[in-house]
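My current task is to audit a protein record that another person submitted. Alongside the sequence sits a line of tokens, each denoting a local backbone shape. Where you disagree with what is written, explain briefly why. This is what I was given:
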Amino acid sequence: MDQKTARRVRLTRWRRLITAVLVVTLVGGPVALYLSPLLRVRDVQVSGATAFSTDEVLSLARIDDQSMLRLNLAAAEHRVESIPMVQDARLERRWPYAVRIEITERAPWAFWEIGQDHYVIDSEGVVLPGSAPIENAPVIRDVNGAARLVPGDHVDRDAVAASQTLLQRVPEKLAMNVSSLEYTPQQGLALTTDGGYRVVVGDSQNLDYKLAVWQAIDERLGRQAMVGHVLDLRFGDRPSFQ
């Protein structure tokens, strides 16, 4: 082998060696990083949790010692949101090894009454733990309700939404107050007013229209003439007055 050929062989070997090193680096580097203990979750910070323990959040999140690169944040958020008092959970990576869990808790809004039982619910109709009195809280009486509720159950969400709107709009629109709220699956939502009569609203559909019809009838008949009667607004432009 002459000197020129030998040099060419040596260059070829070096090129192959360098190529092999680069391939190992490019392939093995990410694998090593993926498996590295340096990028595993070692610090989980929880904020916003006051009605339940941080330990409960951590046990449901189940992200300790997992790789930061393969965390399923959406699944962990869903598990944390199974806590009845949690309205929303957001997980955020804090590189290189921390995760922050932001909790938004549900706030008590009203009582859902079934017989002698009073259940605390939030503005979305979720039953919350405890039965501590809430000052000036609305009460929605479920006339036909029989089943006992547990934290995390949902009462009728539409009835809750309609109640919130009516409690605000009736005083504004008709200059009277809602005295009581009542719900049945068959009839929907009904209320009595301090004007001395009952109004069946049904569901939350077209509430603005229902309120306009109610106001027109109240003005046409006169409030005193409506005392002791029932105004049914469930059927659109065919209200009934009994």
